[in-house]
Amino acid sequence: xxxxxxxxxxxxxxxxxxxxxxxxxxxxxxxxxxxxxxxxxxxxxxxxxxxxxxxxxxxxxxxxxxxxxxxxxxxxxxxxxxxxxxxxxxxxxxxxxxxxx
Length: 101
Fold this sequence. Notes:
Number of domains: 1
Number of strands: 2
Radius of gyration: 26 Å
Helix content: over 70%
Strand content: under 5%
């Protein structure tokens, strides 16, 4: 994601203004919840598309995808919870019936 930085004799890194801008953009994208792989897919667009529209469209697709995945997982968990509740109720009925014998 970043070009190699120059080093001084004491091991300090020196970054260009463009590299610092990339670092700031990477931090912003991380704060939006993008993974490093997702950031790698869009970071160059921020520095090649002067309008900024294309990178923003790609970035906004990521949280939408995450939201859809979260909704699917919530649905799966709700179904799992309902199945558990039904199994518990059946088991309780079975135990109640056995205790009455």
